[in-house]
Amino acid sequence: MDQFTLNLLVVGATFALYFGIAIWARAGSTAEFYAAGGGVHPVLNGMATGADWMSAASFISMAGIIAFGGYDTSAYLMGWTGGYVLLAMLLAPYLRKFGKFTVPEFIGDRFYSGTARVIAVICLLIASITYVIGQMSGVGVAFSRFLEVEASTGLYIGAAVVFAYAVLGGMKGITYTQVAQYVVLIIAYTIPAIFISLNLTGNPIPALGLFADAKSTGEPLLTTLNGMLADLGFSSYTQQSDTTLNMFLFTLSLMIGTAGLPHVIVRFFTVPKVSDARSSAGWALVFIALLYLTAPAVAAMARINLVNTVYPEGTTAAPLAYEARPDWVKNWEKTGLLKFEDKNGDGLINYVASKDANELDVNRDIITLANPEIADLPGWVIALVAAGGLAAALSTAAGLLMAISSAVSHDLIKGQINPGISEKGELLAARVSMAVAIVVATYLGLNPPGFAAQTVALAFGLAASSIFPALMMGIFSKRVNSKGAVMGMLAGLLTTLVYIFLHKGWFFVAGTNSFTDADPLFLSIKSTSFGAIGAMINFAVAYFVSNATDDVPADVQELVESIRIPKGAGAATGH
């Protein structure tokens, strides 16, 4: 059976499974649409949260970013993992105790202000749509190779799939679909990693293989990689080259951005009790760790395999002739995501650090997906990775679209515009807003502002600067009032958004940027790191405005006090 047919069969089978689950778990009420009826088992919710969390950025893009960035890009691992711990410890149980469906609803009630709720909706929409752009671009990368279509066509196919099961099933359908998607994506990620680790080190556990000796040299794998890169003029894989300030701020931005992303927070409303929210957070961390412990090994081993492909006789010998390039290079060339330019006319693939002499341009987002082909693994493994990559992108896209639709229908339409809307009308509004969000994200995904992981990092920065401070102050401070919260969110969001647009182009339109991340506007702080600065601005503005204006009403202060008591939470209300 040829590879294309095998890809179609495996990907088609997983899509059939997702559609079947969506039909079986069709939402019949707003409680089921927004929070899956609040009856999901903590282990299943942990698995669904893992799929929701491990997006195209984690599955498709992160290993590629680390493979080419080395030590500097390890911040992706530290920030996203540490952020989830922060979310589980400081936010999830308290928000579950509060008992509302959405983050804007909590902010609106805690800060006793419809304006605060609307501002929270705006912050949520901007961060979530930016996040979805990264997911949709990841879908385009996966489809472009494995279904042998243009990346734009892949985007349209992915959008149609998400539309079918997310709009149909709501949170109930999404939850059980994500359980299936987690199983698919974790198997798809670990099986090729095990094969490659065995090939390079003889160790079947990739995380241990990363620190084992390479078969080819008898030296530690990372030492071998550093030697190969040094021969080609690249910087050391294990040495820091970025500034400590930018790395610290980037890690912090990813951490607090994680804790401010509404599509993960809302998962803790799908379980019956507060204790179940804590339990499902623990399970989710276990399921997430399975991929995040493997990713650094996948990255390092992929870089080694790439260099070995181009320099089969070693980095001190002549590179491979272009005419003798392997099939995987030919396959990815068709997508336009891998390009060769014979700059010196010798017919050889010169892969070196110098931009003027380097002839191989490799898109970072293809590394994980191409890894099985580079390592010459069986066809079924390649097909499985295709299904896993799509599962990762589509599961998170669905969760984000759920957060967007609930913000528009529940917080904006029902909460502010038409409080008397019927449950049927609210469900219709939720589905329409989800469909509109899919169209917008698909359009913007055609020309993303960076690789999938970089685009997602921008979304984390926006959530870090706007939503996270409001949640933290709402739970742990009785002094911050409505005016402080509104001004803080606006200040944090606008400063971060302007800084990003100055570096990535206004509204992500290419060519309209004034600076680049290689030449940042302020000190060494890149656009992906500025969310931490925006959060500090948010906290400071909220604090000073609150102290200069009215005290928080006594009943709201009592509400804040009650949130911190870990007993007595019932089902989610307000629907």
TrEMBL record:
Domain of life per record = Bacteria
Organism expressing this protein natively: Sedimentimonas flavescens
The entry's localization annotation reads: Membrane
Q: What protein name does the entry list?
A: Cation acetate symporter
- Extract the NCBIfam families matched here: Na_symport_lg
Q: Entry's Gene3D superfamilies?
A: Sodium/glucose cotransporter (1.20.1730.10)
Residues that span the membrane, as ranges: 6-25, 77-95, 116-133, 153-170, 182-200, 247-269, 281-302, 380-408, 428-446, 452-472, 484-502, 522-545
Q: How does it sit in the membrane?
A: Multi-pass membrane protein
Q: Which PANTHER family match?
A: NA(+):SOLUTE SYMPORTER (SSF FAMILY) (PTHR48086:SF5), SODIUM/PROLINE SYMPORTER-RELATED (PTHR48086)
Transport as a keyword of this entry, yes or no, is yes
Q: Which UniProt keywords apply?
A: Cell membrane, Ion transport, Membrane, Sodium, Sodium transport, Symport, Transmembrane, Transmembrane helix, Transport
The record's section on InterPro entries has: Na/Glc_symporter_sf (IPR038377), Na/solute_symporter (IPR001734), Na/solute_symporter_CS (IPR018212), Na/solute_symporter_VC_2705 (IPR019899), Sodium:Solute_Symporter (IPR050277)
Q: Which residues form a coiled coil?
A: none
Q: What family does the database annotate?
A: Belongs to the sodium:solute symporter (SSF) (TC 2.A.21) family.
